[in-house]
């Protein structure tokens, strides 16, 4: 069987470079395109050279439409507006679109869902195996312990991250809400300042930390009467997200159009 032909968008960013390396390291996948914004100083550079590996003979371009026409899938960790645009192009080309972009609005999510009617779209706030297993544990713990155990989600990322809470924190919060069979939007507490009064029963709290070069740390705290359970994940390298994204793309090759998650890729969705 021929290798899956993949395009990386946002290729010169930190995640873009990690994705390029992951594609070259994965059996059954090959890089056929690397896309950057118009005007980027990296346009014309070799993607492998940019990623710190051997030259690949794939140069950075700003023509996503042309790249998608010769690809089987696209790996996308960019920004919401760019992701919506790439989703439209991927749907037209009927190729797999793997989305690790965070910070999407409900309107953005609706556009991605519309694109998924025509092509496979795998979207997750975190592509790592560990985080998705953690989400399953959080779901089960929230279901077993009930609202008497207060849920607090603490996350820390590098100082350059622009959205908060992180997509991963929201993924974990959603898992807790699913475990309790409640709507996260109605029970989410994003900030506390001043005289807030006592904590509401069943609230799912989020605390956001930013600083330095932290790749990603997440802790889910379930605090009950006289005891506390903490479930923690620490990402040590972006390669875990990149490898998960490539795995998701390969998985998507044999699927019908639709909107999927990493839980589907890892076979965890049926256990939700």
- Continuous helix count: 10
Q: How are strands sequenced across the largest beta sheet?
A: 3-2-1-4-5-6-12
Order of helices and strands: EHEHEHEHEHEHEHHEEEEHEH
Shape assignment = elongated
Beta-strand fraction estimate? 15-25%
**Rg result:** 19 Å
Walk me through the topology.
Elements: E1 4-9, H1 14-25, E2 29-35, H2 47-50, E3 60-61, H3 64-69, E4 73-76, H4 80-93, E5 96-99, H5 106-115, E6 120-123, H6 129-145, E7 150-157, H7 167-180, H8 184-187, E8 188-189, E9 204-210, E10 216-224, E11 227-235, H9 239-252, E12 258-260, H10 262-265
Parallel strand pairs: 1-2, 1-4, 2-3, 4-5, 5-6, 6-12, 7-9, 8-9
Antiparallel strand pairs: 7-10, 10-11
Helix pairs in contact: 1-9, 4-5, 6-7
Q: What is this structure, in a nutshell?
A:
With 272 residues, the chain is an alpha/beta fold.
Explain how this protein is built.
The protein is α/β, with parallel strands linked by helices. The protein is built from ten helices and twelve strands. It has helices spanning 14-25, 47-50, 64-69, 80-93, 106-115, 129-145, 167-180, 184-187, 239-252, 262-265; strands spanning 4-9, 29-35, 60-61, 73-76, 96-99, 120-123, 150-157, 188-189, 204-210, 216-224, 227-235, 258-260. The strands form two sheets. It has a seven-stranded parallel beta sheet, sandwiched between helices. It has a five-stranded mixed beta sheet with strand order 8-9-7-10-11. The longest helix is centred in the middle third of the chain and has 17 residues, at 129-145. The model has no long low-confidence stretch (mean pLDDT 95).
């Amino acid at each position: 069987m021929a290798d899956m032909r993949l395009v990386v968008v946002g290729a010169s960013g930190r995640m873009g470079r990690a994705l390029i390396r992951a594609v070259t390291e994965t059996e059954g996948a090959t890089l056929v395109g690397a896309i950057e914004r118009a005007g980027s100083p990296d346009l014309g550079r070799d993607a492998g050279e940019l990623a710190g590996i051997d030259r690949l003979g794939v140069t950075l371009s700003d023509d996503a439409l042309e790249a998608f026409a010769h690809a089987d899938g696209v790996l996308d960790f960019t920004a919401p507006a760019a992701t919506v645009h790439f989703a439209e192009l991927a749907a037209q080309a009927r190729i797999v679109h793997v989305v690790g972009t965070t910070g999407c609005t409900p309107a953005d999510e609706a556009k991605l869902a519309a694109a998924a009617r025509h092509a496979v779209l795998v979207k997750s706030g975190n592509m790592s195996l560990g985080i998705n297993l953690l989400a399953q544990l959080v779901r089960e713990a929230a279901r077993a312990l009930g609202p008497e155990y207060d849920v607090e989600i603490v996350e820390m990322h590098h100082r350059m991250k622009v959205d908060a809470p992180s997509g991963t924190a929201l993924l974990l919060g959603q898992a807790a809400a699913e475990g309790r069979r409640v709507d996260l939007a109605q029970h989410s507490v994003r900030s506390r300042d001043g005289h807030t009064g006592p904590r509401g029963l069943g609230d799912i709290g989020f605390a956001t930390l930013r600083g330095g070069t932290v790749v990603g740390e997440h802790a889910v705290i379930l605090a009950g009467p006289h005891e506390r359970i903490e479930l923690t994940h620490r990402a040590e390298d972006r390669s875990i997200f990149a490898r998960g994204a490539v795995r998701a793309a390969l998985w998507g090759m044999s699927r019908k159009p639709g909107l999927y998650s990493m839980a589907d890729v890892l076979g965890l969705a049926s256990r939700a």
